[in-house]
Specification:
Chain lengths: ~110, ~120
């Protein structure tokens, strides 16, 4: 499986909204509603931010939201805060009990 | 409180076999629906899913690495072990173990990761 396609970087000012896209195929993103998003700060383990396309785990701010259309999933962060600066990875179930990750997007808060 | 921690050698030589252990607490791999996966991340690169083991001992592997990976569990010790044969410098990465909850298709808790360097 090929990695899902994410923009290498996005940026926004505090208070603004940013959206990170994640494009796959009908065999992964488009085929299942099992998209998850992970935040990774430098030197730290990934943290689950969104699962099942748009669900938030307990403790994740509602500024984080997820959606999907066709073969593209999206993570939107509204009301950007300095603490949101991190790398973000999408992940999709890819069938046959396997997963595929995106290449990662570096979010810079200006 | 769910925690996972990876352990293993920091340095291996090319062609050697890598053995990593994930020791966890706060849940049991004998619970129906519980699963643990291994995921790796080369320095500065993306995450890559490697393998998964289920409560009922079902095992699943990345197609591209299937011939080199073996995952196993010791439920009594709360441990999951991953072996990777024929290590190569391109296998240099931080290796993470992560939990998949019952009925979930995502990784809800991750270990801190362990960096493995492959070099002669």
């Amino acid at each position: 499986q090929s990695a899902l396609t994410q923009p290498r970087s996005v940026s926004g000012s505090p208070g603004q909204s940013v959206t990170i896209s994640c494009t796959g195929t009908s065999s992964d993103v488009g085929g299942y509603n099992y998209i998850s998003w992970y935040q990774q700060r430098p030197g730290k383990a990934p943290k689950l931010m969104i699962y099942d396309v748009s669900k938030r785990p307990s403790g994740v701010p509602d500024r984080f939201s997820g959606s999907k259309s066709g073969n593209t999933a999206s993570l939107t962060i509204s009301g950007l805060q300095a603490e949101d600066e991190a790398d973000y990875y999408c992940c999709s179930y890819a069938g046959s009990y396997t997963w595929v990750f995106g290449g990662g997007t570096k979010l810079t808060v200006l | 409180q769910v925690t996972l921690k990876e352990s293993g050698p920091a340095l291996v030589k090319p062609t050697q076999t890598l053995t990593l252990t994930c020791t966890f607490s706060g849940f049991s791999l004998s619970t129906s629906g519980m699963r643990v996966s291994w995921i790796r991340q080369p320095p500065g690169k993306a995450l890559e899913w490697l393998a998964r083991i289920d409560w009922d001992d079902d095992k699943f592997y990345s197609a591209s690495l299937k011939t080199r990976l073996t995952i196993s569990k010791d439920t009594s010790k709360n441990q999951v072990v991953l072996t990777v044969t024929n290590m190569d410098p391109v296998d240099t990465a931080t290796y993470y173990c992560a939990r998949i909850p019952p009925n979930g298709v995502y990784f809800d808790y991750w270990g801190q990761g362990t960096l493995v360097t492959v070099s002669s």
